[in-house]
Amino acid sequence: MxxxxxxxxxxxxxxxxxxxxxxxxxxxxxxxxxxxxxxxxVAAEYVADKLAEVGIAAExxxxxxxxASLVARIPGTDPARGALLVHGHLDVVPADPAEWSVHPFxxxxxxxxxxxxxxxxMKDFDAMALAVxxxxxxxxxRPPRDIVLAFTADEEAGSDYGAHFLVTEHPELxxxxxxxIGEVGGFSYTVNNDLRLYLxxxxxxxxxxxxLQARGRPGHGSMVNDDNAVTALxxxxxxxxxxxxxxxxxxxxxxFLEEVSELLGIELDLDDPEAAIAKxxxxxxxxxxxxxxxxxxxxxxxxxxxxxxxxxxxxxxxCRTLPGxxxxxxxxxxxxxxxxxxxxxxxxxxxxxxxxxGPLVDAMAAALRAEDPGARAVPYMLSGGTDAKAFNRLGIxxxxxxxxxxxxxxxxxxxxxxxxxxxxVDGLQFxxxxxxxxxxxx
Length: 442
Ligand SMILES: [Zn+2]
Prior knowledge:
The chain is of the alpha+beta class. It is built from 13 helices and 19 strands. It has helices at 12-24, 40-52, 123-139, 163-169, 229-242, 251-264, 274-278, 284-287, 326-337, 359-371, 388-392, 412-415, 425-440; strands at 58-62, 68-74, 83-89, 109-110, 113-115, 147-152, 177-182, 187-192, 195-204, 206-215, 219-220, 294-302, 308-309, 312-321, 342-349, 352-353, 375-382, 397-400, 422-424. A hairpin with a 5-residue loop joins strand 1 (58-62) and strand 2 (68-74). Helix 1 (12-24) crosses helix 3 (123-139) and helix 10 crosses helix 13. Bound molecules: zinc ion. Zinc ion (ZN) binds next to loops.
């Protein structure tokens, strides 16, 4: 009998680079407009093919033509345990090739990095999850609990055509899921050679996008008008834009600041944490946004002719609120802008916060330490929002854990939606090893 040796299995640490590169080469730009967003269907089919190759069946669901998300379930050995959701979005924010050192959709390997829009947000994690489950399927490894994989559309424009659509229209896909991991967390912040903090996201600020409207008396631009809507709106918007809301230290931020200031030998005053935060270097701008509610004016709209005073003027304000602050924030905002402006919500998604404890958190910390003896897992709050907001609607406890070891000098937060977004290849390979360990033990 003729015996063929089995084909050598690709190592997941090699495969992750190929998978990430392939995904980066699929332009999945999300412009926020269905007519001009592109590529999510192609990316979802790519992922479905990669899963099908190793015998994992996946379903693609479209919220609108082309707005494709994909879900698959890998059965665990103990079906009595709740399932773990592993989610990553496939869309990316736009990138202008003229501003980049390489083409943003070239997936170029250069200087030890894989370059491209989505390299850290978040095709890196999509590729890690794919590499791990493909390796398991080939080697016959089964996870302890069911793993639900979700690769979503539209995260970069609020998730209405991605995670929120899946949760609203197909909640059965997530049946039994009790916990979830996704972005934005698990990345390292180097303190010194022997100590790296890995920031695990356990909280997210809430999103409140508001439209403020002032009404006044329309009229001719040449005449006296003491009830001008543009003037009233601008006064209120200027006050709001310069206002600093009071500092509130939530349990997550408190845990982060206490641990980090001790490790770094920074003096911490919890009534005035800004001095300590200023000493955190590259992560100061991440943490600084999580100690208060914020309100940033982003759009203005009024008038239609140079010599006509319009009867109304509107502004859009991007507000982000701390957990439990949604109602209080509106009172605070009203006090700043005064009683006359109308307030309308354009987008409202609540903040999230969960405890940094339990077996899943222990498994994250242990997997990190096994691959990096200098690893210390710490909780933190994300000032932005992610697909976790959608999955939390199902009662799923959500964490940001997309493990990535970064070189000490890399400005990681600056790469998010930034020019020359790139991921270190060794960091990506580290991530695969940590994710594999974590999922085997979760
Ligand atoms: Zn993202």
